[in-house]
Amino acid sequence: MFHVTERLLLRPTWPEDWQDVLAGIGDEAIARNLARVPWPYTEADARWWTAQGQDPAMPGFAVVESATGRLIGSIGIHANEEGDPEIGYWIARTAWGRGYATEAGRGVLAVARALGMRRLAAGHYVDNPASGRVLRKLGFVPTGKPARRFSLARGEEVDSIEFALDLDAPCTMPCAA
Question: What domains sit in the chain, N to C, each tagged with a CATH number?
Answer without folding.
Answer: 3-166 (3.40.630.30)
